[in-house]
Amino acid sequence: MTTLTAALDLVLTALPDPGGGEAPPGVDGKILTLLKWVAYLASAACVGGMLYTAARMAISHRRGDDTNVAALGWVFAACIIIGSASGIVGVLIA
What we know:
Blueprint: H1 2-14, H2 28-63, H3 69-83, H4 85-93
Helix pairs in contact: 2-3
């Protein structure tokens, strides 16, 4: 067992540590601005998706049709993923 542990330690110490990364010169602030715009647009799409889905549900309920709550569930799932995207990426990279 100690041989296996020693071999594992040897392999893990031989792996390079990429660190936090570094932005190329001249684009540091531009990339951050672009990511903020994408995050803003994704949040706006979530709000729009909720409003659209809720309106469709209200119209179909008024007509007496069967309302599909699953569509609202998919919109909520997208909102959760978009809202926690940076946390998810941080966990996967670290």
